[in-house]
Amino acid sequence: MDRRSFLLGTSILALSQAIAGCGTNQQPLLNVQLLKNSIPGQVVNQFRKTVTQGGKLKFTPINQLEDLFKLLQTWQQPPTNNQQQWTRYLPFNQNQKSPTANLITLGDYWLQAAIDQKLIQPLATANIKNLVNLNQKWQQIIKHDQEGKIWGVPYRWGNTVIIYNQEKFQQLGWTPTDWSDLWRSELQNRISLLNHPREVIGLVLKKLGKSYNTDNINQISALETELKALNQQVKFYDSKNYLEPLIIGDTWLAVGWSDDIIPIINRYPKFAAVVPKSGTAIWADLWVSPTGANNDSLAYQWLDFCLQPNTSKQIALLTKSNSPIDKTMVNGDIQKQLQNLLLTDSETFAKSEFLLPFPPAVMKDYEDLFMKIKKS
């Protein structure tokens, strides 16, 4: 399941991680369900040392953002008769229920759906003194209304970026720096793109000097022409296996998410990546509070701890991601081949955007155009 996809259904999860520890009588004072590998164990251990009241902590890693979103849905719905009957076959008592976490990881792209479905509750901003460390760009994504409520706290982020085979581009005598390079004739049938209308149409909009969040794409006369030309360059559309063609040499360049791409760069020295200088899409992992969670001081201590510059830097370095706090990292902290990804310059960052939610009618316009282009 890719980072920019989510289910709005209400099916329950049959995941052992989601029910781990259900049989214990003593519940932890802080129960956190987090995206696997998004918080280093060292950071959790450091936080444990700061907890002076003897509070019990429970951090449960979950494999996919989709699973975390389903957990939020499950906690807000009583089990149906069918679900109760089905759980008889699970290796735990059907009357036991996965306890609602105090905090849970959510991707920024899922945030509005969670708010609309009343799956999460606002955070008490007065209890998070380190919110002041976030710049205005983050305020845009975590407020989501006019009342100033904070719905989430970012703890790491990344970009949609270009990864390319340096050996192939040495033969061409140039390297990609921006979206416009994807249209160069040398790359015909050499590109793999995400199978995602917001990402593909969005990068074309950026090439045209428009926003990823343009809601009137039918009025942009050059858009369809540019998309058709780009489609001639593309060999694969895939949001899960888009890097395999690059690795085996079927493509020379791919567009994808930095958290997928950075491990490939670390493993294969022949690959390099770049954040397009005209701006790109930003993704973020955030802490949110499930509706009904009773968040005492310990939950807010964790949020504040994650927003400390030193902690944020450690999360970013150890998970190979970006810090939401400005100027926490310098070149010397990061491997040379990752510096341009993890130290996005301020001008490019200012031009980059979160993918904001669209009404269904606008989303249908994107999907219809994307399908039309792929069939052409």
UniProtKB/TrEMBL annotation:
Residues 213-240 form a coiled coil. Keywords: Coiled coil, Periplasm, Signal, Transport. Pfam families: SBP_bac_6. The keyword Transport applies. It is found in: Periplasm. Residues 1-20 form the signal peptide. This is Extracellular solute-binding protein. It comes from Dolichospermum heterosporum TAC447.
